[in-house]
Amino acid sequence: MNTPVFDFNTFEAEALKGLQEGKPLEGKNGVLAPLVKRLLEAGLNGEIAAHLKESITPNRRNGKMSKRVKTVFGNVDIDTPRDREGSFDPKLIAKRQTVLGDALDHKVISLYGMGMSYNDICKHVEELYGLSVSPSSLTLITDKIIEDVKLWQNRPLESVYPFLWLDAIHYKVKEDGSIKTKAVYCILGVNRDGVKDLLGLYISENEGAKFWLNVLIDLQNRGIRDVIIACIDNLKCFAEAIETIFPKTEVQLCVVHQIRNSMKYVPSKHMKPVMESLKLIYQAATKEQAEIGLALLEEQWGEKYPAMVKSWLNNWDRLSNYFKYPKEIRKVIYTTNIIESFNSQLRKVTKTKRVFSSDMALFKLIYLAYGNLKKGWIDSMSGWKLAYAQMVILFEERMMQQ
Fold first, then answer.
1. Of residues 100, 237, 242, 74, the one with CA closest to residue 161
2. What is the distance between the alpha carbons of residues 232 and 216, in angstroms, rounded to a whole number?
3. pLDDT at position 210, please?
4. Residue 212 belongs to what domain range?
5. Phi-psi region of 350 (alpha: psi -120 to 50; beta: other; left: phi over 0)
6. How many structural domains comprise the chain?
């Protein structure tokens, strides 16, 4: 039996005619679908010819079996050749394979990483490619990244990070038949080359210093030996947890968080004058000037808003650490805005997901969103050379350790 031969010239003429008639190149009714069909069938016929030639026992063709294969060029109905012995196992399109290659998978994963819901992806794929896929099928496709997620989460880290920002973002997740609020712990770091990266993601039922301690132990186990400065909000016992694992680390409490928390105690009529008093503290040129402003804050507002003033006094040691450094370092460490900005970008991607079906569904989406966001991160932070030179002067031994 003669093996069908694929005639490219004939296809080229047909494709050109289709384009001239206004047919799309790809997708539903696209001109490439017939090419895919012919290429696949030609390849399968080549495979069975080689299989029959290598067969030890007498064997021959035994008709064909039709099946529909989903591709990014649309649904393609192909005829798969069979042999009498039933020993032919095609590699191009496996016996039970109904989706061609990874192209569709990559498209689905890309759309999911942009925040589209499974239902919206189904509609998108149907509209563009004429393919009918179910949400459960999409789950199986996105599950293919789970191994990548595990490898990423357990990858080795560098030994020294000059700066670390730690914060949590909260989502609702289904678990054991109920909906729970989960905290996703995010750690952003800048290495000695000034390159920013997300070092890890961890999920727990709620944010607390105890779980942060486990996170820090994991970072240590993955290779971090020293963190010069860690920037955090004022979660109870958080700073102590950091200092337990990295005793040399200087903890800088987020000044912006402190200001926000302070204003919760102040009614609208006094917000403006209280803010002016706070500016004398956090905008001061030196720690000495800031402490004069702190004394004025206590004198002016201590009786009216004792809880606010007490918070500044109690946290002053860790709030004021940034005054030790030149402005190039100050602007990097005095706030956790860098990680809050990351969290804000995550929220834009995840806003369509009111409730996640599982921890892994949440993890997959954040991991994919991080991959997209990372593409826009520059090679090194702005002004890094000067900041690095200053860090080396201040912490030469620690910055140079292997």
1. 242
2. 13
3. 86
4. 157-400
5. alpha
6. 3
